[in-house]
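Students often ask why we bother predicting the structure of a whole assembly rather than each chain alone. The short answer is interfaces. A chain on its own may look different once its partners are present, and contacts between molecules only exist in the joint model. In this exercise we take two input lines together and write out one structure for the complete complex. Read the inputs first and try to guess which parts will touch.
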Amino acid sequence: MVGGLALLVFLYLPIAVLVLQSFNASRFGGRWQGFSLEWYARLFQHREVMQSLLFSLQLALLTAVGAMVLGTLSALALHQQRGRWRALHLALVTLPTLMPDVLMGLGLLLWLVSLNLPLGLGTLWVAHVTFSLGFVVLCVLGRLQQLDQALGDAARDLGAQGLQLWRRVLLPLLWPGIAAGGLVAFTLSLDDVAVSFFVKGAGESTLPLRVYGMLKMSRELPIINALCSLLWLFSALMLWLASRLWRRKMAH
Amino acid sequence: MLWCLWWMLLPMACLWLLALQPAAQEAQASGPAGPWGHWALLGDPYLWRLMGRTLLMALATALCCVLLVLPLLSWMRHLQAGAQRVLLLMVMLPCWMPLLVRILAWKSLLQHGGSLSGLLQALGLELPASGLLYNQWAVLLVMVYTQLPFALLPLHAAARDFDPALLEAARDLGASGWQVFWRVWLPGLAQALRAAMLVVMISTLGTYVVSDLVGGVDGELIGNRLVQRALAQRELSQAAVMGVLVMLLSAAGLLLLMRKAGPRSNPELQSPA
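Now the answer. The structure tokens for the assembled complex follow.
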């Protein structure tokens, strides 16, 4: 029990200090100089940060949509496949979730360079969809495995076909899994530094990359404190939502 | 079914990228010493020191993660199901923070004039000018902090599935608390332990963000070198050589992982079910 409590302290102490510091009036952090919301106000006036935020949100949204579509289709295929093909397919889809970041980034960069593709939003999107696809597939696949096979059969017996079967039966049953996967993909995309660093190109910077640069230069740290506190809140919210959706399986 | 073939192509492509790495180096080889000039990198003793340090760092991170998680799990098994869920959520919550937030949190804690170094100074300890940052230990600390979920999830899944009747049986047969822990519970988790450590190690091998932000000269890892070569110096072929090294190491880890976990029980792939 002592060990467990120690772990909790280890986990929460840094965040507590971070959030506290974001309200600290002091310019350099450290000593407490009174409560202040100045950094939050400054954050929202920071043009570069806000631009990157918009760019990142856009990217994360696109990533979530892409990963949801591809992941769902892939999971449906996996659900029907058997044997060797299935194992290969599953390995391919889940490998990027485990692969070291530098390998992924470098591999993609080399491939994109050899394809002569311009680096930018498109390449970032490809990279982000690739590494978040596995999570969507696992979410949807889990959902599919709980699904009663009879439901599909019944719908087919009652005359549902193709698109109708999809829209009226499969999608409503699967969507908590799909949405949970999408939320995870969104969060991952908003969080990624390591892979994006390779494939971002010269154009607009994503938010994490912007923060990374600011952290490296130790510029405007109090503003980053404020930003990071908000980011933490946001991603916690997203994942809480994802797990809520995920837990919905009990209802059926 | 045509769909599935088609949709396998995209993930497939991502694997091909990696397989293409050696080929890409060959095509781009325009180093000073002929087409294979960039392989001369392998003769550099510093590179091997870096590799060694990276491996050591991965191992240390994995060990620390597991050592931190085990007491938690053994505490958890005494709790009610509801309390267990709350506790797990509490542990997972900070783990899901964005990576940079976690790094920054530690950075502000450890930096000169930060809270922790202030505390240590109050206790009368001398500190270097940079505070507690920019060394290997800072890298290890933050690395453990960021990799913890990878150790927690497989271990938790295994601990949850562990049959409590076995523990009861052991106690009925006269085993003390420690004996139950060491002789029954821990061996029961051995497979998950191995899996958790390998997963942490594999993902640690390729990190560079942590060591870049909190590591100093002696905190540099292979990943930093690779990024520097690839992006700052545009020496893609040299970076690719290092990429191949990292890939070989992580592939070895992956093979080990698949063999040990075996087809019978793969806690990771089955846990969402």
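Check your guess against this: DSSP finds eleven helices and no strands in chain A.
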